[in-house]
Amino acid sequence: MFGLPGTTVLVLFGFPIFWIIYTIIFLIVSRKWGKVEKGGKK
Amino acid sequence: MSPVVTIFLVVYYAIVVGIGFWAVKKGAAKNLEGYLLGGRQIGPLVTAMTLQATSMSGYMFLGAGSAGYTTGYWAIWYASGDIGGGVVNLSIIGRRMRKLSKIMGSLTSIEYLENRYPAAATRLIAGLLSVFFLFFYVLAQFIGGGKGMALVTGLPYWVALLIAVGIIILYTYLGGYFAVAWTDFFQSAVMIIGVVWIFSAALHYLGGFTAVNNAFAKIDPTYLSIWGKGLGYKGQWGQVAGAVLIFSVGYMGWPHVVTRHMAMKDPKTARTAGLYSTIWNLFFVTSPYIVGILAIVILPNLKDPELAIFSVAGKLLPPAVTGIVMAAIMAAIMSTADSILLQVGTISSRDIYQRFFNRNANDKQMVMVSRLLILSIGIIGYIVALLRPPGVFAIVVFTTSVLGSAFLPAYVCAVWWKKANTPGAITSMLGGAIVAFVWKVAAIDSATAIHPMFAGLVVSIVLMIVVSLLTQKSSPVPKHILKAMEEAESLGDIPKDMVNMAEFALNAEAEEIKKLDQE
User: Fold this and answer.
1) CB contact at 8 A, B238 and B454
2) How many CB pairs under 8 A join A and B?
3) Which residues in chain A are closer than 8 Å to B224, comparing Cβ atoms?
4) Whether the Cβ atoms of residue B131 and residue B434 lie closer than 8 Å to each other
5) Contact A4 B83 (CB under 8 A)
6) Do A19 and B91 touch (CB under 8 A)?
7) pLDDT one-digit tens code per residue, B471-490
8) DSSP letter, residue B299
9) Residue B39 vs residues A35, B33, B288, B335, B454: alpha-carbon distances, Å
10) In principle, which of A36, B50, B63, B119 could form an S-S bond with B393, CB 3.0–4.6 Å?
């Protein structure tokens, strides 16, 4: 792809995809942070 | 210099200085918490952008371009970790550190360490390590700023340096953290516009991504390999681990970066800021490395690889756009330099002067002392930068390795591991810094193919765990710290009786009394 070896493509595009997934998981896991703090309760 | 480029630079400088005066008007310097942490009122977008702009120094336009130009696609390993640096930092320690620092009443990232790992030695060692290594870091930014300005404007180096450094000192002196955070926000926008523009122009000039890679295959096919030109890094997983770690988890060990958590408006700010960080990084981080790689085809006989991005901009872009790219480069340099300058001034004033020499200094005096130290350190930095010590950008990677190795376990365990105690933290900081330093200076990295960051980090993590466990009986973590950690772990507002807990303010006094008792 793009005239690059497979391993280079994997690193070049694989890591950004990994970080996008990491961010989505973080947003899901932390979804209660805002709601709880608005009420000021634990 | 083209008049259009001059106009861009003048407008850019006017805006950052204007933000400094605006910060003063907003009352940013009315008390010490306001001056050092912007009154802990920074929202998610500005938090994300100051975190990213501070982390991405002039290295991204000089060192990253050079890495791409000299090693080909090997340089992408560094970008691979860097894309996640912001969200890793915010997700792992952001919310808890914001909460814990407020409970402990900590105003600096070094004071925070002493409050969590109570001992004068914690603060002294952490303070001195930070000031020493961060000074080299800020020096590299000053020199990068001076060199870049001189190249584009044609001004003598000392004049260009004076302008660049003078402006950084002015707005940092005036508005403290609030001014730094908001100028970083503005600078992050300039940086991304500049880098996307030069990246698009270079790809367009070469006929697209596939065409340029086909051209590389004809020059030297090993440029295309992830193992670097001549496959020089093939199988060197220790180097790969260091390259990925340094700018991903490494940020959690940088005192000037983790301060951003302490200044957030509230703990939940970390969540949205994490999202913004990733979006910004996806567009920004890889581009300078790729432009450096593309420069191999565009400018095959470049004498100074550090000027790859400057030179590509000069060759491909019209003057108006060169002005934007130049402003972006200055933005990357200045947004890091201001944060480090503030951090070094802060550590020197709060963590060394007030902690060890003048406990009774009031807020007004401390703002003045912080400002004077920022001014003095800036002037000393200017004088040393005039001498232009060689290999400065190599120092940046070296310095970040040492700082990351020294402080990462201390900051992460501060919020996550209740058994992390003072002896564990002190030995971890010292061990990590010494190993990373010696690893590079004694060229052990070349002999072993293991990156200094990786070696230093392994040692500091092992020391933190082993020493903490071995000294649990002799140095248990005090009850008030465990209570604060439990509160930091939970969601929700901090109970009123726990905000700026008295026990933490009394730490230093308690320690002295303990010493007197022992005597």
Assistant:
1) yes
2) 96
3) 3-5, 8
4) no
5) no
6) no
7) 999 999 998 899 999 999 88
8) S
9) 23, 5, 34, 20, 36
10) B63
DSSP string of B336-366, one letter each residue: HHHHHHHHHHHIIIIIIIIIII-TT--HHHH
Chain A residue at shortest CA distance from B208: A2
pLDDT tens digits, B397-412: 678 889 989 999 999 9
Q: CB of B58 within 8 A of CB of B147?
A: no
**Are B286 and A16 an interchain contact pair (Cβ–Cβ within 8 Å)?**
yes
Domain boundaries, chain B: 3-50+58-400
SS3 call for B264:
strand
Residues B475 and B423: beta-carbon distance below 8 Å: yes
The token duo for B326 is: 């130049």
ipTM for the whole complex? 0.89
Q: Which amino acid is at A37?
A: E
* Homologous superfamily assigned to B3-50+58-400: Sodium/glucose cotransporter (1.20.1730.10)
Are B73 and A18 a contacting pair at CB < 8 A?
no
Hey, what are B9's tokens?
């630079």
Strand partners, B264: B42
Asked if B79 and B302 count as a contact pair (C-beta separation under 8 A), the reply is: no
